Amino acid sequence: MGKIRKISIKRIMVFFIFNLGFSVILTPLFVFWGPFEGTKTLAVGSILSSRHPQVVKAFLSDEKISEIVNKYDNAAPSDGPIRHTVSDASAGITIEDIKGKAFKGKVMLIKDPKRIKVAVTKELGVTGERVSDFVKDTGAIAGINGGGFYDPNGAGNGAYPDGLTVHNGEIVHNNIGSKSTEVVALDKDGKLIVGPITADDVKKKNIQEAVSFWPALIQDGKKGVFQDSFWGVAPRTAIGQKADDTIILVIIDGRQPTWSWGAKMSDLYNLFLDYGAVNAANLDGGSSTELFYKGKVINKLWNWAGERYLPTAFVVMPE
């Protein structure tokens, strides 16, 4: 009897392991080559905007990726995205709901660019903080997620900002040495700077606040270089500036088919054009995308676990 039971348990385990392995093999084939276009778009967008875009390229050609990404044409209608002001500008801040063909999000307009600061985790190299923590720690009234980060030990806790990080005119983290990196920065006059710089440029250009991320969407009034097929469709965070120095913070929800699919880089570019931006750049997005204001998250987070732990954020200080 005992022998029969042992054999049965062994067979059950073999059956379970076989089916698990079979599912692992079939799942990517089903997702990338299956009939469900929505699932395919979400998967491609999610993976392209992750640290392992090569996974998609292992199953799909560049032409097919472009076809999938462009099938969901979220580009702004000819009369621009639908906008609705949801708070007054008495405190120098205006918040608007935005809606494209397949995305929803928020735009925050800040008249005084010098109110924008970079917040850096208090435990740099140990763990990151949530955007709500950054806002509370700095005494700010609002905040969005900031630059990219790397994960040398696999902990995934947002402890290390990638590239150059600058606060109050000082480099607080640099893991690129003397090389150039794409940044989103503000100089002493509150002018937004996007594009490549080196550590030496921080002092030369009087940069006060900076994080590293890309691509530049608009640089000195000209369209940046980017490809939708490289970035896919995903939740987005971005920042721009008008000619009158007003800062434009953009949050696009995504990966929520009943609410918002997400945005392509061309969607962000069109949105910033609609707002009259002369400089604009993409920030870290995906599950990091968040806008925190007056004590609460005011966009719809994609991350099921809630706010993500990050190394940096852009915060909006009181007047």
Number of helical segments with 4 or more residues:
8
Classify the helix fraction into a percent range: 25-40%
Could you spell the SSE succession in H and E letters?
HHHHEEEEHEEEEEEEHEEEHEEHEEEE
Domain tally: 2
* Residues in β-strands, percent: 25-35%
Specify the structural class. alpha+beta
Query: What is the oligomer described by this structure?
Result: single chain
Give the integer mean of the pLDDT values.
84
Kindly provide the radius of gyration, computed on alpha-carbon positions and rounded to a whole number of angstroms. 22 Å
N- and C-termini, Cα separation: 79 Å
Strands side by side in the biggest sheet = 1-2-3-16-15-17-13-14
Secondary structure tally: strands: 20
Principal-axis shape: globular
Structure description:
With about 325 residues, this protein is α+β, with helices and mostly antiparallel strands. The chain has two domains: about 1-70, no CATH class; about 80-315, no CATH class. Helices cover about 25% and strands about 30% of the residues. It is built from eight helices and 20 strands. It has helices at about 1-35, 35-50, 55-60, 60-70, 130-140, 200-205, 230, 265-275, and strands at about 80-85, 95-100, 105-110, 115-120, 140-145, 150, 160, 165, 170-175, 180-185, 190-195, 205-210, 215-220, 220-225, 235-240, 245-250, 275-285, 290-295, 295, 310-315. An eight-stranded antiparallel sheet has the order 1-2-3-16-15-17-13-14, with helices on one face. Residues about 20-35 and about 75-80 have low confidence and may be disordered.
